[in-house]
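User: Please predict the structure of the protein below. I'd like the answer in structure-token form so I can feed it into my own downstream comparison script.

Assistant: Understood. Taking the following sequence of 86 residues as input:
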Amino acid sequence: MNQVKTDTIVRTIVLIIALANQILAILGKEAIPVTDDQIYQIVSLIVTIGASVWAWWKNNSFTEAAIEGDKVKDRLKQRRKVPHEL
């Protein structure tokens, strides 16, 4: 699966904010006071938090028993992939 690059997400958010600012300006409202750099930092923070949560959501085996359990699990999964001879 291809991952969307952070730069693409940042550019999209910047575009949405620019469009929102333009609409606000047309309506005579005050524009949103955010810089591109601030948006990049916010998006980077969100991506970092998401990556951290995803990394810890995965199976993280630290103890000897957990590591051995992972080996057993992997062997069982491998057996399912190999077709049994009749």
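That's the full token string. The chain has one domain: 6-81.
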